[in-house]
Design a protein that fits this description.
The chain has 631 residues and is of the alpha/beta class. It contains 25 helices and 20 strands.
């Protein structure tokens, strides 16, 4: 028995390290490319080779850097000599009379992905314009505040801190406005009409974790070690779902009580349909790294890799202040004025030189709704993007165009330039989800809840609800974040504020309900779990946002869909967003950083090939980037 307890202790330690405890706020970026073994990488790539410099994929031999740069310089000279007659000529308007403006790159969308991409292109001295269809920036980042002193989110709610996010905040000048929840707050799971805290220490996993039975703990521990017959190798010839993968490794009980609510919190998805290698890449990679196939040996390898990566001078040099600012593990982060502050700060930075002037002169333009994308008839190396704007139709002409809109919205824009890619994007499924924010007097809370009897208020991140437990208890919500427990300043004295999520791919009927009915359903669920039976007051109904198409589902075959999209995307067109790079806040920030490098390099290639006169500082920025990569 002692051996079994030790095995399960190691399992929970690994799971905690990987951030499996509570996932309402999303999954962090998988990290360096070495996370996946060659075997895993061969199963599907999300990166298009045609816009990727070889040095970013392969380790070049010594001396190759100089040779490549010398060759590039000679090619540039030859290209400019031979193509001066085809030099770029600016246009005043399109052939159908739409005023046109020439820039180096256009970014469509100012959500997390678009804001990050536009900012990092600007940092590379690329002449970029970011166009946002709404009259405010942020896309799905929606932070609200009322006169009573409540501050809440109606889109993404928090982020798991990464050096990428923190460096971005530092470079925007808003690092002072970062706020972090106490990492020691418990995460909870609702089961059998009780709230069970997930273990924060290995010994708690063994002796104080009442959610799992002893047989369930033993089964999970031995499977995590990779000991047959508890661990069985993956099936050949087919892609596994999250449910199949986790049950094979850890058993049915751990899946049902721990992983099922985790998946609901991240994707609002169906674990029978979501693909493990696409949706939970970090967990999938553990089996590839493990000598036995079990999670624990794989986690040991990954922990060492991560430690080596993060201690390297190159890592610290790239992420700078982002490394130094990292809070304790397990923290959740936001900004003083809500997540939208990141997008608003990006807007202020991009428009720093044109404050108060017309949209036309700004680098980030609101109320610019994309209408059409076409190739320039006179030079197919350029894209013409047509927008409906407050001043009428306007067009931007650029050699590089990045569309960060959701797949279901981007499809209609691609008919003239990438119809096959657009058709493939229609396969990405987005279920309906609603976010509902309610508040209750602290006096209405059940006394047995964490922190209530000691402090009068909730102490915890929030609770997740397995679908089996939800059916048994007659509740419908996926989970609830205890918002004012995370950030007490966001609710006035005497109140607890809570953010519920409801709907998803296993409850699509939420899309047909009225907002009032959805709020009432969330109110009933909170009363069953958190509010005293004898309290008959009314909840403070703060906000609701119903997304008919909410979170992209990384279902079986998703990576194949992405490969087909990439294969049918022409040069100069960059399709991205959370349906490609991950749904977490950090994934979207890192997408902007990495895609900015690809676009900057592409613009240099474009100039070399066409002799086009892009801004000189673009060339300088790319040369500096190549020096860092190849030198």
């Amino acid at each position: 028995m002692r051996k079994h307890k030790t095995a399960f202790t190691l399992l929970l330690a690994a799971c905690i390290t990987l951030g499996l405890g509570f996932a309402l706020s999303g999954v962090g970026k998988a990290g360096p490319s070495r996370l996946q073994s060659p075997r895993a990488s061969a199963m599907g790539s999300q990166q298009s080779d045609k816009a990727m410099h070889p040095a970013l994929r392969l380790k070049l031999p010594a001396g190759a850097g100089y040779a490549f740069k010398r060759m590039a310089a000679l090619n540039l000279q030859q290209s400019r000599r031979s193509k001066r007659s085809a030099a770029f000529v600016s246009k005043a308007e399109t052939k159908d009379g739409i005023p046109i403006e020439d820039v180096s790159a256009v970014v469509v969308g100012s959500g997390v992905s678009g804001s990050s991409l536009a900012f990092h292109l600007d940092q590379a001295n690329v002449d970029v314009v970011c166009a946002e269809a709404n009259d405010v920036v942020g896309g799905n980042l929606i932070s609200r505040k009322n006169e009573q002193g409540f501050l809440w989110e109606e889109g993404p709610n928090t982020f798991q801190p990464t050096p990428q996010i923190l460096r971005y905040a530092h470079d925007l000048g808003i690092a002072k406005d970062l706020v972090f929840a106490d990492s020691k707050l418990p995460r909870l799971v609702f089961w059998d009409n009780q709230l069970f805290p997930l273990p924060s220490k290995p010994q708690d996993a063994v002796f104080n974790f009442g959610l799992l039975s002893w047989p369930g703990k033993i089964r999970a521990g031995l499977g995590a070690l990779g000991i047959p017959p508890f661990y069985q190798p993956p099936p050949s010839g087919r892609e596994e779902s999250i449910e199949e993968f986790v049950t094979r490794h850890l058993g049915e009980e751990t899946f049902t009580k721990v992983i099922d609510p985790f998946v609901s919190g991240v994707y609002a998805g169906d674990p029978q349909k979501l693909a493990i290698r696409a949706a939970l890449k970090k967990i999938f990679a553990l089996e590839q790294l493990s000598a036995t196939g079990g999670f624990i040996p794989g986690a040991a390898v990954r922990i060492k890799q991560k430690k080596d990566d993060e201690s390297s001078p190159a890592y610290k040099a790239e992420w700078r202040e982002g490394v130094e600012m990292m809070p304790p593990g397990g923290s959740l982060g936001s900004f003083r004025n809500g997540l939208v502050q990141l997008a608003e700060a990006t807007e202020q930075h991009l428009n720093r030189d044109v404050s108060g002037q017309s949209n036309k002169k700004k680098k980030l333009r609101t109320s610019w709704k994309l209408r059409d994308i076409r190739k320039d008839e006179d030079d197919e190396g350029y894209y013409i993007s047509v927008f409906d704007t407050p001043e009428g139709q306007r067009a931007l002409r650029s050699p590089a165009l990045a569309v960060t809109a959701p797949a279901h919205r981007a499809t209609s824009f691609l008919q003239n330039v990438a119809p096959a890619a657009g058709a493939e994007m229609e396969k990405v499924y987005y279920p309906p989800v609603a976010s509902v924010t309610l508040a209750y007097p602290k006096s209405a809370l059940r006394q047995e809840l964490p922190g209530v009897s000691e402090t009068g208020g909730l102490q915890g991140f929030g609770h997740l609800i397995p679908r089996k437990a939800a059916a048994q208890a007659g509740v419908r919500t996926l989970g609830t974040i205890w918002s004012s427990a995370l950030f007490p300043y966001r609710a006035p004295e005497g109140y607890e504020m809570m953010l519920c999520y409801i709907g998803g791919s296993r409850d699509v009927g939420i899309g047909d309900m009225s907002e009032e009915d959805i709020m009432d359903t969330c109110d009933r669920d909170i009363r069953k779990i958190l509010v005293r039976d004898d309290w008959k007051g009314d909840a403070v109904k703060l906000g609701i946002r119903k997304w008919q198409k909410a979170i992209p589902q990384y279902q079986k075959g998703h990576l194949d869909v992405l490969q087909t999209i990439d294969a049918n995307t022409p040069e100069g067109l960059f399709l991205g967003g959370n349906y490609k790079t991950g749904v977490a806040f950090g994934d979207c920030v890192d997408y902007g950083i990495q895609e900015a490098k690809q676009i900057t390099y592409y613009l240099q290639r474009f100039e070399n090939k066409n002799g086009a006169k892009l801004r000189p500082d673009v060339s300088k920025a790319v040369s500096k980037t190549l020096d860092a990569v190849l030198g």
